[in-house]
């Protein structure tokens, strides 16, 4: 079993920045892809960004150029640097991690962007 704990969410004004962190612990062997997803009220959970163990990244079009995903394999931690935040970025942000065929999810952290 792998546990994921997110941190770094909060309230920020439009145009501001936040940095999310997600640390994995437990029975870790090799975590391949890690990612961030978000879910706003009334909406489905959507992809924000993913990163492979080798550092290849993928972003949703809505965050390209504003968000940066990174990871520290030695610490089993993934980060999401969010700049130029917009009110529409308001959501609960979840990290996930894939180990073998199993995908694990964190409990989520709230990000609120005020206009």
Order of helices and strands: EEEEEEEEEEE
Instruction: Classify the secondary structure makeup into a structural class.
Output: mainly beta
* Residue share in β-strands: over 45%
Fraction of residues in H or I helices: under 10%
Tally of helical runs: 0
- Using only CA atoms, what is the Rg? 13 Å
Q: What are the low-pLDDT stretches, counting only 5+ consecutive residues below 50?
A: none
Distance between the termini: 40 Å
Q: How would the global form be characterised?
A: globular
Tally the beta strands: 11
Q: What would the average pLDDT be, to the nearest integer?
A: 97
**Major pleated sheet:** 7 strands, mixed
Description of the molecule:
The chain has 115 residues and is an all-beta fold. Strand 5 and strand 6 form a beta hairpin. The protein is globular, with a radius of gyration of 13 Å.
Name its key features.
globular; about 120 residues; 7-stranded mixed sheet; mainly beta; 4-stranded antiparallel sheet; 11 strands
Write the SSE topology.
Layout: E1 2-7, E2 10-13, E3 18-26, E4 34-39, E5 46-51, E6 57-59, E7 67-72, E8 77-82, E9 91-99, E10 102-105, E11 109-114
Parallel strand pairs: 2-11
Antiparallel strand pairs: 1-3, 3-8, 4-5, 4-9, 5-6, 7-8, 9-10, 9-11
Would you summarize the structure shown here?
Helix content is 0%, strand content 57%. With 115 residues, the chain is an all-beta fold.
């Amino acid at each position: 079993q792998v546990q994921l704990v997110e941190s770094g969410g909060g309230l920020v004004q439009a145009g501001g920045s936040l940095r999310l962190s997600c640390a994995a612990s437990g029975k870790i062997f090799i975590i391949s892809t890690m990612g961030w997803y978000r879910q706003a009220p009334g909406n489905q959970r959507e992809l924000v960004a993913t990163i492979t163990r080798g550092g290849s990244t993928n972003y949703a079009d809505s965050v390209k150029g504003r968000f940066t995903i990174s990871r520290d394999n030695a610490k089993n931690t993934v980060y999401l640097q969010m700049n130029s935040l917009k009110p529409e970025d308001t959501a609960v942000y979840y990290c996930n991690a894939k180990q073998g065929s199993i995908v694990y999810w964190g409990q989520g952290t709230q990000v609120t962007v005020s206009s």
